[in-house]
Design a protein that fits this description.
102 residues, 2 domains, 3 helices, mainly alpha, 69% helix, Substrate Binding Domain Of Dnak, Chain:A, Domain 2, single chain, 0% strand
Length: 102
């Protein structure tokens, strides 16, 4: 997939990877700059379900893009899913243990 160093295919993949990473970094930087903390201890479990659904959809996207040979997009998609699940877990709204396949 990555090609040998200096191959045009390898360079194209690395350019695509760099571009993708830069785009995601800009997005997260923007979100962190703009975010506003909301007050209130209320938990809307419908929203928790919606976030879990989003994580499932990102996982489906990751599997699809992996089958299509778009590993960079697949990695980004599964990373989104993992981040959503981690956020819910850190907030104490869900409970699970990460199992790393070897």
């Amino acid at each position: 997939m990555w090609g040998r160093y200096g191959d045009s295919e390898g360079a194209d993949v690395m350019d695509d990877l760099r571009s993708t990473v830069e785009r995601y970094i800009r997005g997260v930087e923007s979100a962190l700059t703009e975010l506003v903390k909301e007050s209130g201890p209320e938990i809307n479990f419908g929203m928790v379900d919606s976030i879990i659904d989003s994580a499932n959809r990102y996982l489906q996207d990751a599997n699809y893009y992996l089958r299509c040979g778009r590993e960079v997009v697949a990695l980004a998609s599964v990373s989104y899913a993992e981040g959503l699940l981690d956020a819910l877990r850190i907030l104490g709204l869900v409970n699970f243990t990460w199992r790393r396949a070897g």
